[in-house]
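Progress note, project year one: complex with zinc ion.
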Amino acid sequence: METKLKIAVQKSGRLYEDSLKLLKECGIGVKNGMNKLKVEAENFPLEIYFLRDDDIPQYVADKVADIGIVGENVLYEKQKDCPVVLPLGFGKCRLSIAIPKESNYTGAAFLQGKNIATSYPNLLQQYLSKNKIEAIIHEISGSVEIAPGIGLADAIADLVSSGSTLFQNGLAEAEIILRSQAVLIRHQTLSTEQEEILARLVFRIQSVQKARDNKYVLLNAPNDNIEKICSLLPGMRSPTVLPLAEAGWSSVHSVISETAFWDIIEQLKAAGAEGILIIPIEKMIA
Ligand code: ATP
Ligand code: ZN
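Model obtained:
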């Protein structure tokens, strides 16, 4: 029987779509998994298990699944021994302490002796211990943000992305405990065949990530300034220069990171570059 790698992904919620999108961008087709616990990938030796995100570290630690996609917040809260293979760049959020916005907050010492509601008791306790604060932790599993409003707690520790949920509940972010994103985790030990499949998957993910960060740039340049323009464009190797039908002009092609591009656009224009096109790259094999 063909060896497969079992991957655990969130069955619904904030990580579901990005997890499946990533697999799809890696050329791994997954037929509508929504209502199934388990599906086989179409063209890659991968079996996908759809689970609650909270259970994923445990399942990977127990080798029910070999690898998984989960937020660092959940991974570190659960304190399971699952090595991180690589960060995935989505599901970004922070675990923060928030307090009623009218409070007179003077620093972490404000929390001394307070009641703090959270779904992340371990991460909160670590933070409090590190800062030598004694507080009472109330573990609740959901709707943590309403706890101060109903008199259940003086503060909360919860996930924040935009901060609008906090704002709607009259809370303000006071301290960041952890910055988190989705990561690929693995079981400590895999068979040689499984290691090979994982290496193939990681190679594909890295190609997708590199492509995401980079853009293909095309521009027209007067031949007199080609050297200057090429020196501004750090390509994969060096830019491609092709003559245009119009005498004295060339077309310059290169691959550069999107952020680097915005830094040099003015210099490119000053050097006479025209008709600049920025094109997304689908895969990038360095
Ligand atoms: P499940 O039913 O799987 O237990 P859940 O309700 O615990 O789902 P979601 O709200 O879907 O979980 O969040 C899943 C993960 O998405 C979080 O653990 C976190 O890593 C990430 N995330 C990113 N932004 C946010 C945010 N603003 N609020 C909550 N989670 C976020
Ligand atoms: Zn959850």
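The domain at 93-180 is CATH 3.40.190.10 (D-Maltodextrin-Binding Protein; domain 2).
Helices lie at 16-25, 56-61, 72-78, 121-130, 164-168, 192-213, 226-232, 258-270.
No further modelling is planned for this target in the current period.
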